[in-house]
Amino acid sequence: MLKLIKAVSVFVGTVIGAGIFGIPYIVNKSGMVPGFFYFLILGGVVLLIHLFFGEAFLRTKESCRLPGLAQKYLGSWGKILVMISVVSGLIGALLAYLILSGDFLKILFSPFSDLSAIQLAAIFWVVMSYLIFRGIKLIASIELLTNLIFFSANAAILFFILPKLDLSNVKILEMSGIFLPFGVILFSLVGWSAIPEIADFFKTSPEKRKIKRTIILSTALVVPFYLVFVLAVLGAVGGNISQDTLSSLAPFLGPKIIFLAVLAALVTLADSILVLGLHLKNTFVYDLKLSKRLATAIACGVPFLLFLMGFRDFIGTIGFVGTVVGVIEGVAIILIFKRAKRLGNREPEYSFKAPSLLLYLLIAALILGAVSQFLI
């Protein structure tokens, strides 16, 4: 039971990240009713894809991640497409967190510094780049602590703003923004990168049967948490919500609470940047055979260059990443799952019966959602 709890905490911690701060803004643009249905529908779609990925992974003897599974079951074109998606997604996520770090640092240092959000973000990024270059030991030692701080901060936010909840502040439906939430919410729900780690965490075959339960329990925790958070924030703030959420909450939480909340969010951002940055660096080192210095320079330099070039729209960035990565990798996982049913070389600890019609409907839903982003 304890192992299951730990696995669920790892999975939930992977899914719920700094992207949570963009959800209230985007749901306010569409209204709570469309937001609710996006979470309901995309939550179901992502749950199924997580289960498919878990089974495909368990059907494979070789130790590999998504690009390796794509190579095995889809061929070279699948690996190339997934690699492009993985690299693009990591760069986009790093850019999004860099943008958010500037906003949060500005809130922290505005009482005693005239530095702009851009300048503060640049300083922060130099520090993060150095830590990414240093590697895994420094990163791994703080990850558990940052997850604890992050969830404690979100619990504190909910505790202080729930008494200020006024449902009249919550928009029900905004037709002009009805397509907006797709990419952002998809970004906030995806966590399939954690599945291989959870599979490794469960050592024996009987333990690996718990992977399915881990995925289902995690989704059952994440979706309601997001909905309560969004409802509480919008119920307190209403239409004056900012893209980073925390700026809007300052009048409701008071300076001391907002300082602690922003500090906790920054710690989480730092952890996310370190983990993603290291993963991207290692992708270049192990898959493309680049040197450590060059890999670090690309992994840290490209997001920073995009930031300096003016790509500083947090919502637009996570919406793009959620759409592109969620759709490409989601479709790839569905196709991998379909082929692993026939070509897998290992008996899985769980098997999910999914008719071909369901798989095609899921693919269609992802593609139509992506197309809708171009209608905005």
UniProtKB/TrEMBL annotation:
Q: Does the keyword Chloroplast apply?
A: no
* Highest taxon of the lineage: Bacteria
GO CC annotation: plasma membrane
| Protein name as it appears in the record | Amino acid transporter transmembrane domain-containing protein
- Classification via InterPro entries: Amino_acid_transport_2
Please give the organism: Candidatus Nealsonbacteria bacterium RIFCSPHIGHO2_01_FULL_43_31
Q: Which GO terms describe its biological process?
A: amino acid transmembrane transport
> What Pfam family does this protein match (any one)?
Trp_Tyr_perm
**Compartment annotation:** Cell inner membrane
Transmembrane segments annotated in the record for this chain: 7-27, 33-58, 79-100, 112-132, 144-163, 175-195, 215-237, 257-278, 290-308, 314-337, 357-375
Q: Is Isomerase found in the keyword set?
A: no
What keywords is this UniProt entry annotated with?
Cell inner membrane, Cell membrane, Membrane, Transmembrane, Transmembrane helix, Transport
As for membrane topology, the entry says:
Multi-pass membrane protein
